[in-house]
Design a protein that fits this description.
The protein is an alpha+beta fold. It has a domain at 10-77: Winged helix-like DNA-binding domain superfamily/Winged helix DNA-binding domain (Arc Repressor Mutant, subunit A), CATH 1.10.10.10. It has helices at residues 10-13, 17-28, 33-40, 44-56, 79-86, 89-103, and strands at residues 31-32, 60-65, 68-73. The chain has a 3-stranded antiparallel sheet with strand order 1-3-2. β2 and β3 form a beta hairpin.
């Protein structure tokens, strides 16, 4: 079965670890492309390609200021990820309660 295009949805877009790293880096504040290139020691064309994918699926916003492009995380674009992972929250909560119980000696 062929894999879906990286621009088809947020899940495919963040399947690539460098895009996840860029998204985390942008969570702190808006950044210029040059800052992102420096942070990750990637070529500018590679960073631009990753940013394009993230922008196409709505995970980041872009803003031009003169010749520079600035990117920031689009919090609303993260909603599908939150909704999907929240379905599993009860499992995590259950596991944490089991760990707590064992740590306190209650089996």
């Amino acid at each position: 079965m062929p894999r879906a295009a990286t621009t088809s949805d947020v899940f495919n877009a963040i399947a690539e670890s460098q895009r996840r790293d860029i998204l985390v880096y942008l969570a702190a504040r808006e950044r210029a492309v040059g800052e992102i290139v420096e942070q990750f020691s990637l070529g500018q064309p590679s960073v631009s390609k990753h940013l394009r994918v993230l922008r196409d699926v709505g995970l980041v916003h872009a803003r031009r200021d003169g010749r520079q492009m600035f990117y920031r995380t689009n919090v609303a674009g993260l909603r599908p990820l939150l909704e999907f992972t929240s379905m599993f929250e009860r499992f995590w909560r259950h596991q944490l309660l089991r760990v707590k119980s064992r740590a306190e000696g209650n089996r």
